[in-house]
Write a structure and sequence with these properties.
With 478 residues, the protein is α/β, with parallel strands linked by helices. It folds into 3 domains: 32-144, Nitrogenase molybdenum iron protein domain (Rossmann fold, 3-Layer(aba) Sandwich); 183-292, 3-Layer(aba) Sandwich (Rossmann fold), CATH 3.40.50; 299-434, Nitrogenase molybdenum iron protein domain (Rossmann fold, 3-Layer(aba) Sandwich), CATH 3.40.50.1980. 46% of the residues lie in helices and 13% in strands. The strands form 3 sheets. The protein has a 5-stranded mixed sheet with strand order 2-1-3-5-4, sandwiched between helices. Strands 12-11-10-13-14 form a 5-stranded parallel sheet, with helices on both faces. Strands 7-6-8-9 form a 4-stranded parallel sheet, with helices on both faces. Helix 15 (379-387) links the parallel strand 13 (374-377) and strand 14. Helix 1 (32-40) packs across helix 6, helix 6 (147-168) runs parallel beside helix 9 and helix 12 (313-322) runs parallel beside helix 13 (341-349). It is globular. Bound molecules: iron/sulfur cluster. Iron/sulfur cluster is lined by residues 30, 32, 51-52, 55, 58, 112-113, 140-141.
């Protein structure tokens, strides 16, 4: 296996980072999308939004773009229903309407920004109607940093509810019956082949792969809570992991990615599940040479910066480094948690800078600083890279949509990455052909090229500097 060790980079906090942006947080799509998506992917679950029509339009559009194939309920409001409290009554009526036990196990109601800020009290909704569970959540953009963490908010609320039910008495068994072996519950939305690959890795340990949280069905929540150990594949699911911890389940961080990641993960899972060291050694013997062989056959050569908001960024970076890539920077919009510590430490030891809660400006600064051959990132990062004629790949659609775990994951990135790297000459040709056409103030299609007015911007800058100086002097006086 080839890994590249670079000196620890000296990237400084970005001077232009948006410390006073709308939410003072990483840029993200509407966070409520994460919770909405989790609800829409569950069988026999109705999802209702309460919020501004423009927000609901965007959220339903995105849901259907990602193949929801399910109606989204909506309780609209106006100033009057909001301020008089009638909106809550209408949400209450909508929930009753949807709580049909023949159709639904659960109804999820999500307060968007305005109803949350106005204090529409979803916690006063009944917990259950006709045997249908009712789950009300506030998921405002000003309170939840990323859409990834909104998935955790709903998953955690459902686990809490299901844990309470399991504590009261017998609950439904999973579809297909209980596992004949101890199981490992996986936490995090991943490529569909990954749970299958993880299941194969667990076989020599005498373990089965349990449900994946967020689950696709209510009854799977009980089986998830019943896992012998919990694998925090995506480390930002802090609410869900809290429920597992309360249920007394050991939690294992990181994931079986590449050679080193798989070796460490098998050891941690073996220890959490009380598997003998001989069995762990046998599992490593079975899988590690195969992973090493695949990595050697699919090398990646090139300097890469990487950023995203899915929560799997550190795992992808590990795989790239083990494939031979010179990875300099990993930015994730998700927060730092104990469950990503093994990945952060491993990457730091290879000289890779890891930035949690990374802003767009930090991601762009990393691109400028490290001059990569390939940029993997969010839409605006990819756009900025392509404008500079640097090949770039969109993390969510092109990297997240591949297996990462075990032998199947080891070689899965090489083809897409190497194809993108090989595109440099095409970018150079396009750059040479178009030159500076359509840059900056002249971007877009015009009959007359717009006239740049740099004096206007200079004027704004002077005014902003004056205001900032005034604020500083007032703050100093106080
Ligand atoms: S205003 Fe709030 S609910 Fe609406 S789109 Fe923005 S973050 Fe989402």
């Amino acid at each position: 296996m080839t890994t590249t060790t670079t000196p620890q980079p000296a990237l400084q906090p970005c001077a232009s980072a948006p410390r006073q942006g709308p939410h003072d947080r990483p840029q993200t799509m509407c966070p409520a999308f994460g919770a909405l998506r989790v609800g829409l992917r569950m069988r026999r679950t109705a999802t209702i939004l309460s919020g501004s029509a423009c927000c609901v339009y965007g959220l339903t559009f995105t849901s259907h773009f990602y193949g929801a194939r399910r109606s989204v309920g909506y309780v609209p409001f106006d100033s009057e229903t909001l301020v008089t409290g009638q909106l809550f009554e209408e949400v209450h009526a909508a929930v009753h309407q949807q709580a049909d036990p023949h159709k639904h196990d659960a109804v999820v109601v999500i307060n968007l920004c305005v109803p949350t800020a106005s204090g529409v009290p979803l916690r006063l909704l009944p917990k259950e109607i006709n045997g249908v569970r009712i789950i009300g959540l506030d998921v405002p953009g000003f309170g939840v940093a990323t859409h990834a963490e909104a998935k955790d908010i709903l998953a955690g609320a459902m686990l809490k509810y299901a844990r309470g039910e399991a504590e009261q008495g017998p609950v439904q068994a999973p579809r297909g019956g209980r596992s004949d072996k101890p199981t490992v519950t996986l936490v995090g939305e991943m490529f569909p082949a990954d749970p299958v690959g993880i299941g194969a890795l667990l076989q020599p340990l005498g373990l089965n792969c349990g449900p994946v949280v967020p689950t696709r069905e209510w009854r799977e929540l009980y089986a998830a809570l019943d896992g012998t150990a919990i694998a925090a594949i995506h480390p930002f699911y802090t609410n869900a992991l809290h429920e597992f911890a309360v249920a007394g389940r050991p939690i294992v961080g990181s994931a079986p990615v590449g050679h080193d990641g798989t070796a460490a993960w098998l050891e941690s899972i073996g220890s959490a599940c009380g598997v003998t060291s001989a069995k762990v050694a046998a599992a490593k013997q079975q899988w590690l040479p195969a992973i090493q062989g695949v990595l050697a056959q699919a090398p990646i050569r090139g300097r890469i910066t990487l950023s995203g908001y899915e929560g799997s960024e550190l795992l992808v970076a590990r795989l790239l480094v083990e494939s031979g890539a010179d990875v300099r920077y990993v930015g994730t919009a998700c927060p730092r948690t104990p469950w990503s510590a093994p990945d952060r430490e491993w990457l730091a030891a290879k000289g890779v800078m890891v930035s949690y809660r990374a802003s767009l400006e930090q991601d762009l600064q990393a691109m400028d600083e490290f001059q990569p051959d390939l940029v993997i990132g969010t839409t605006p990062v990819v756009q900025a890279a392509k404008q500079q004629a640097i090949p770039a790949l969109y993390f969510t659609n092109l990297i997240s949509a591949r297996p990462l775990m075990g032998p199947a994951g080891a070689g899965s990135l090489a083809q897409v990455i190497n194809t993108a790297l090989a595109n440099q000459s095409r970018f150079d040709a396009m750059h040479a052909f178009f030159g500076d056409t359509g840059q900056g103030h002249a971007a877009g299609i015009w009959e007359d090229t717009p006239q740049d007015r740099p004096e206007f911007r200079a004027n704004y800058r002077r005014q902003l500097a004056r205001q900032a100086a005034q604020r500083r002097s007032v703050g100093g006086a106080a």
